[in-house]
């Protein structure tokens, strides 16, 4: 559903005045101002006032706001009906386990706001969504958004690529401009705009380019020609994979599992790259590729820090899903490909080789001890988080896509 003129539904809590719009002032009243009765678009308070109005409405309807994600509301009824609503400003994605519950919720909301009923979910925030009830899958794609990126940066005729980054040609600050002429040459390049465009694809349905976007973001203050050409290579990769979907439902057991990996000191800044991904029903739902704040002294330390970041995300996911669907009775599995790091996290005994590691990175030990996460070894060849820590060759890239749930739709 979509709320019409959402911000106008809010209630102002202070006196606010505005100049009269040009051409609307009555004769003799040109110097008067308008007192706002409702928030309007462009007002700083408008989004906050609309959110408070929406929250009050949901609470009045008997819904509970998630304490973990304040944009999600849910309600259980006495006859085991459940309705879950995810809100993005004025767009509402609704899930219910019965048609009756869905209809009742929509009718109740229509009685309070002017709404547009968009029926079954097919598009949300520029993401195309398809349901296949025969295969019991849900698939998401940003092909239309990718076409927009390709068109904006004039790459319609560019040759598609099979990998976003060339693993044999690393990027570094040494490739940044060093002469006035080089600086001038890159002055008007739309690099930040390109990174921002790629970031939405990364956050939406293309976790396979997360490492690339993380890498490019390091050069926004001083980009070189090589960095710009490499950015266009990622767009050409998205062009090649625009028809592939992020698919959920391919895991018949409906498991929740996480993968954590780190690439130790392979970049010129010597900070390791942490990567993790969490899958539900065979598709990625949470992922990250991030440079570690510390310089790890060993691969074990780098993997240990990466496991800690993954464990924090696992606990958030357990709190979120547990609040809505019920508490977990088993720990969440996190796979790692470094046995030393797993042993270190499972063993609370003091180790002289790790006494320099900051206390906050030992958070994972408590999570393991509380039986909230379960660390299991996974061979590097099956490590789904590998794509978040380094550039991969084509065969490995294709395999990683499959591991995180990116594939063509079954016809």
TrEMBL record:
<feature type="domain" description="Reverse transcriptase Ty1/copia-type">
    <location>
        <begin position="1"/>
        <end position="165"/>
    </location>
</feature>
<dbReference type="InterPro" id="IPR013103">
    <property type="entry name" value="RVT_2"/>
</dbReference>
<protein>
    <recommendedName>
        <fullName>Reverse transcriptase Ty1/copia-type domain-containing protein</fullName>
    </recommendedName>
</protein>
<dbReference type="InterPro" id="IPR043502">
    <property type="entry name" value="DNA/RNA_pol_sf"/>
</dbReference>
<dbReference type="Pfam" id="PF07727">
    <property type="entry name" value="RVT_2"/>
</dbReference>
């Amino acid at each position: 559903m979509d709320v019409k003129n959402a911000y106008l539904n809010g209630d102002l809590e202070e006196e606010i005045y505005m100049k009269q719009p040009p051409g609307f002032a009555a004769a003799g009243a040109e110097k008067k101002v308008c007192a706002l009765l409702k928030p309007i678009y462009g007002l700083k308070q408008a989004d906050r006032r609309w959110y408070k109005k929406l929250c009050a409405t949901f609470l009045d309807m008997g819904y509970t706001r998630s304490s973990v994600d304040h944009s999600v509301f849910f309600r259980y009824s006495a006859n085991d009906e459940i309705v879950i609503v995810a809100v993005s400003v004025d767009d509402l994605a609704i899930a219910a386990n019965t048609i009756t519950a869905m209809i009742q919720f929509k009718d109740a909301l229509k009685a309070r706001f002017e709404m547009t009923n968009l029926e079954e979910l097919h598009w949300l925030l520029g993401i195309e969504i398809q349901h296949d009830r025969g295969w019991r899958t849900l698939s998401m794609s940003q092909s239309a958004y990718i076409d927009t990126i390709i068109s904006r940066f004039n790459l319609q005729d560019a040759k598609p690529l099979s990998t976003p980054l060339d693993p044999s040609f690393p990027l570094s600050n040494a490739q940044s401009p060093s002469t006035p002429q080089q600086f001038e040459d890159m002055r008007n390049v739309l690099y930040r705009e390109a990174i921002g465009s790629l970031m939405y694809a990364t956050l939406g349905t293309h976790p396979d380019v997360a490492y690339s976007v993380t890498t490019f973001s390091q050069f926004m203050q001083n980009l070189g020609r090589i960095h710009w050409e490499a950015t266009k290579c990622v767009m050409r990769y998205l062009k090649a994979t625009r028809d592939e979907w992020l698919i959920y439902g391919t895991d018949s057991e409906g498991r929740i599992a996480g993968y954590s990996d780190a690439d130790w000191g392979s970049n010129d800044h010597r900070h390791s790259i942490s990567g993790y991904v969490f899958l539900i029903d065979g598709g990625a739902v949470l992922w990250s590729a991030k440079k570690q704040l510390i310089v790890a002294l060993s691969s074990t330390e780098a993997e240990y820090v990466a496991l800690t970041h993954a464990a924090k995300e696992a606990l958030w996911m357990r709190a979120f899903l547990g609040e809505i669907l019920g508490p977990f009775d088993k720990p969440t599995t996190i796979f790692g490909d470094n046995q030393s790091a797993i042993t270190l996290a499972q063993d609370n005994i003091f180790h002289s080789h790790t006494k320099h590691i900051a206390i906050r990175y030992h958070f994972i030990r408590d999570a393991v001890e509380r039986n909230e996460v379960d660390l299991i070894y996974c061979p590097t060849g099956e490590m789904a988080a590998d794509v978040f820590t380094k550039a991969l060759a084509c065969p490995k890239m294709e395999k990683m896509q499959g591991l995180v749930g990116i594939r063509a739709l079954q016809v």
